[in-house]
Amino acid sequence: MYGKAFAPEYQGSLTTLSVNSSLTDVLAEGTARLREAERSGQPGEVARCGLAVAEAQRRLGLVHDADRSWKASYRAARDAGDTAAMAWALWSGGTLARQRGGFPLARRLLGLAAELGERGGDIVVRGYSLAGLAETGRIQGDYAAVGRLHEQLLAEARRRGEARHTVWALEGIAQMHRNTGAYDRARELFEEAAEIAERAEDRRGHAWALRGLADIRSACDGDTEGALELLTRAETICRAMNLSSALAYNHKMRGNVLYRAGRHVEARDLYRLALSEFGAMNEPRGTALARLGLVKSLARLGRERTETLAELAELADALERSGLRHAREMVARAQAEFAPDTQPAPAAGPGAPVGGAR
């Protein structure tokens, strides 16, 4: 049995905030409480309020502000001698580093956060930090290395009845199954995640689960309209909560669905929209995936093959340098697809990713 979802990153005087609070509201309230704590000379409260501010800024795509805020939160926690608060600040910094494509830094910060969380007796920040390490590996496509950690964290979350963390783990495992062709298992896990998230009132988790289900419905069932309806429901949640990154990924997935349906003009426009959104928040992984979808759409609309292959080669080089192996494999499939006379096409099922599954 799972209780109502909560947001452990909203701490101190901000514990009354809901997991579903609009991020603009979180930022405004967090900033006000942060200034009060600074004026009254309470470094522990400064650290806790600063964490909420950093997380709101990160999720709104204000990455430079978020970088300053998590560091300030860490310094305040250190001044207060609050080991757990230091761990939470490092978790926020590691999550931001991953979002910006800095995977080595993300692993270092998240590893330190897990250690401090254990030392400070905060099992929640320890779990969130280990989850961050698992997600970093999954995003890079290193499924063998992090698959077991995902399962371990899922078991721990189920045991404690933590709905939000259970939903996160289910969605991560589902994504790995989807990307390796186990679509039926992915569907089961996304469905379970959607059900738990809805019952626990975890709207963010519900939006991601709906997006995963839309991908499966499009790729496996060929149900374009059903997939678009799920994405519309997810988009409504993203807009209500101002989830900038999730909204951009939603638009990118809508482009995938339209591309598979042969609606290349519409897909092109959605990929362009997603590309601008990812660019505004300095999210390199999302930018690369949207760019891949756009390249493929333009190719289907008659772009010169030499231009298509030149851009794919440039994208492949960028992904090789960044360490995004799964995305690099998708580019290789696109190169084989649009230059079959020069490269052998790898085996791919009917639901092969278009522009990235997530």
| Secondary structure tally: strands | 0
- Cα shape: globular
Overall structural class, as computed from helix and strand content, comes to mainly alpha
Amount of beta strand: under 5%
Please report the distance between the alpha carbons of the first and last residues. Answer: 29 Å
Biggest β-sheet: count, sense, barrel?
A: none
Mean pLDDT: 92
Task: Give an overview in words.
The chain is an all-alpha fold and 358 residues long. The chain contains 16 helices and no strands. It has helices spanning 23-39, 43-59, 63-80, 83-99, 103-119, 123-139, 143-160, 163-179, 183-199, 203-221, 224-241, 244-260, 264-280, 284-300, 305-322, 325-338. α8 (163-179) packs parallel to α10. It starts with 22 loop residues before the first helix and ends in a 20-residue tail after the last helix. The model is unreliable at 343-358 (pLDDT under 50).
Question: What's a concise summary of this model?
Answer:
With 358 residues, this protein is mostly helical. It has 16 helices and no strands.
